[in-house]
Amino acid sequence: MSEPVIHVSKHQAMATQFQVRIADEEKSYAAQAAQAAFALTDKLESHLSRFRANSDISQVAQLVPGEKLRLSEPVFACLEIAKKMETATRGAFSVTAAALKTQAALPQWSLFSKEFSIRCDGGKLDFDLGAIGKGFALDRMAEVLQEWDCPAFLLVAGGSSILAGDAPAGTTGWSCGLGDDHSPHRYWLKNCSLSGSGLVVKGQHIFDPRTGTVAQRKNRAWALADSAAESDALSTACMVLDEVEIAGVVGESHDWLVFLEELGTCRCLGCRASPPRA
Amino acid sequence: MVNQPFTRREFISTTAAAGAGLLLASCSPDSSQKAAGPKNPALNKINIALVGCGAQGQVLLDSLLVIEGIRLAAIVDIWDYNRTSNVRRLKSQGVEVNGYENFEDLLAHEKDLQAVIVATPDFWHAPITNACLKAGLDVYCEKMMSNTIEGARSMVQTMRETGRLLQIGHQRRSNPRYMFALNRLVRDAKLCGRLTAANGQWNRAVSEDLGWPKKFTMSPEELAKYGYKDMHQFRNWRWFKGLGGGPLSDLGAHQIDIFNWWFGVMPSSVMASGGVDYYKNHEWYDNAMVIYEYPLPTGMARAFYEVLTTTSAGGGYFEMFMGDEGTIKMSENPLITKLYREERAPAWDDLVAKNYLRASAVAAPTGDADKVDVRETAPLLQYEIPVTFNKKIHQPHLENFFNAIRGKARLNCPADEAFSSEYVIHKANEAIAVRKTIAITPEEIEA
Asked: What is the ipTM of this complex?
């Protein structure tokens, strides 16, 4: 059986490189679909980036306690997921973790779905969506590709998050490794997301929102989930959770699976069935 | 006492920046605009419709949804994909709107509208704007005003005949950073000295032509009804003569308008070069380079403008005004905005003291004339515009339009003023075509 033809498009956004890989589609149509997905990524960045003075996130940082701001739909949706993940990880994931570098306590905030607004309840809302925004972008890009009837796709954000759609025709899925290019730990992925966190590339950059201290885990962690926003947040949380805590978090959801790097091997934690080995 | 460098108009839409914090704290910011939902009873609710829900319509929609005192009653788009997806998306956000295929249906069914926002392809601007003005509505129309000079002129005439408001979407004219830089730095402080030149650019990397999801392909009959040859032309209308004006009007229009606004006079000539050398299926020039001559009261100044769609190199998009004492490099992106002082210029300390400028914290030691200390290399003093603008880029210009409807403001870019820029941009495309310098007289620029 011949190898599936896969069309690869690349684009820089959110300070990293995004890739769209589309299978089972004509080349120029795949490129145009990828371009539509990238256009959405650029738009999302303009809303989500704390480095853009006009972004929603920059405006949120100006709120004083008691003040509200109407958010654009994607920002509201992303923060809703962030709230949910903060609760699900028992506070080990927070989009305001870095605020502890300048504030004594985590800032407090509430979302109001009826009016798509956020209210500052305390502190300064210094959001950093770095650990969830790219995953959220992948989820939204996937919606675009579904609209374009390109269901067999693999989306990549900076090498740390991927979102797989349907498998290319005639295959078991998209072959994805945990870690390096030649990782022995490879899986066939389809219709799920895999994100990784670690300290090798960016050094110590993850804060424990519960204590304000840096992440304790030295080895890498990967999280598998249905959505990339969730897998992104979960893998980040795994860097500050100990194994007992991780087992408790993933034990409450059948959607999640975590891989922890351990002396050259990777150990699975969670109820979700592991994808087939590639 | 700290001087107050901001007019109220400039201050609206800004937020406190370090160094100007005390000053700004004394001016109550327009905090009502931050509040979620319409809570200011002093604002009369304005019923509006958005005509054109493509890429630019989406950008305007993002701003419209956060502006207080606005009720978006309807959206219009000839493409079912844009129309239905936006109606659905808006409903999910609690915004109930009616969707219409065309502006005739809109005007026939929506009887309580006060204003319309037009963000369709350029060649539809004049017919839609003229019809809406004649229907008694105020109109905010995206630039370019029209794909033809005649179309743009007709819009000004209709505006005058009907007495309605017609704002053109050159949004930088309401950007508080641009207003502050022009009014305080260029005009009051004469920071540039004698202006001798300007330079603007907007370069973009090569990109695929826009496509469309196959299942949302419009029928040939639908496309022909609205003036398109096929779906590719519909999606890429900016590249086709008779529909748009190419990159010079798509991107250059914003920046050439800044040349005119900041110089305060119209150019007396234009020469230009460009061509369809890269993209084989386009009608408009992929790259263009333009030189205008501006007869300023202080002497002639020349402005070079470049728009390239085959490279993203060149350092982003900006308009730079250069004089014999200093230069201001303006951009909607504050990270690109820079100020340069010529050594011959008077010191800028007074401007810093007046809060016209913000200086970087570390200053290079100046030392006495008769002795020199040797120490570590000191960085050059850097200066910034002390205005932070953190609303959405188009929001202040739309707010200005709505405030004008309420009788609380004058339009920052009325159509008769915008026509001048419109005219000289069309002339740049013409100069490329005829490969000659074209003289421009003040009379012909009058709408």
From this structure: 0.87
